[in-house]
Amino acid sequence: MTNEPVPAQAPPADGAGFVEWVRPHLPAMARLAARLAVGADRDDIVQEALTRAWIKRDQFDGTRGTASAWLLAITADQARKAVRRLRPVAELVEHDEAVARPDVEGQVDVNQALGTLSSRQRLAVDCFYFADLSIADTAAVMDCSEGTVKSTLSDARARLRSLLEVSE
């Protein structure tokens, strides 16, 4: 007996089988799309990713990673494309002063801090913390080694700590 990992099952060639194959991964795809492409339509991004996955289903290689990692890598790519397509919206007419809401102020600070990370650090944080991917799956999405993911996450945490003045 060998300890080699069993390759992930390839996507079925029929439409109904493909739907069942991707169904468990849809929530993670939607979360990642929402995190990576703020302002774009999350559902459109997931739909584009599913279309690309269907077209490229014969390119899936279960020996190189999980179905989840493969689908999330396609989703991340589609999210990046959606962000590039976003155009600045015309300036909004000034309105009354916004009312401060203490319940969201902390979240805004975190979102602003996340926005200062490099795109690679944001992708690692989004995959690992917001899409709940493992280090291995995050590495597959980012197309890098697991060590690089760990290092990138460490750097991102250090940056966020300094920005948010969080002590360990």
TrEMBL record:
Boundaries of every RNA polymerase sigma-70 region domain copy: 22-87
This protein's record includes keyword Transcription: yes
Biological source species: Kribbella ginsengisoli
InterPro entries: RNA_pol_sigma-70-like, RNA_pol_sigma-70_dom, RNA_pol_sigma70_r2, RNA_pol_sigma70_r4_t2, RNA_pol_sigma_r2, RNA_pol_sigma_r3/r4-like, WH-like_DNA-bd_sf
Upper classification of the organism: Bacteria, Bacillati, Actinomycetota, Actinomycetes, Propionibacteriales
Family: Belongs to the sigma-70 factor family. ECF subfamily.
Signal peptide positions (record): none
Every RNA polymerase sigma factor 70 region 4 type domain range: 110-160
Keywords on record: DNA-binding, Sigma factor, Transcription, Transcription regulation
Regions crossing the membrane: none
Protein name: SigE family RNA polymerase sigma factor
